[in-house]
Specification:
about 140 residues; 3 helices; 2 domains; rod-shaped; mainly alpha
Length: about 140
Amino acid sequence: WSRPRFPEAGRLGKGLNEGGRRSAERLGRLLSAQVKEYYMLQHAQKRDRLGIVRDVVQMRLDEALADVNRTLHRRTVVEEALRLQNRMEGMVSRNFTTTLRVTGHLYNRHLLERTLDIIEAHKASVRSVGEPILGGMRNIASTIV
């Protein structure tokens, strides 16, 4: 930028008197301030537009990440369900062990008897472990009416 941008600008002020030069300088400063303000406004508007675009992109990115996480969670749940289903299908011929705990009043003995009858009806074996319930045994007739 060694050469002046406006070479004729020096000649423009030659025909002006002192008052005209002061007016021209004030007008130049005013014009310079307005140009600077215009470009600052342009810069602020561009920065605001870019901020809005950035916010929209961030929002879409967050939505996409949430969707990916939901998909991964669904896939994990489905895989777990399939794994459990395969285990259950493999366990068809195996023995299931269930502990039945009955507490409370005397009528629970009758509830236990009915439960054991249902289990035995499905050709499952039943054995009593530990303390006999209410003093009765499965292979001895109950004294409770």
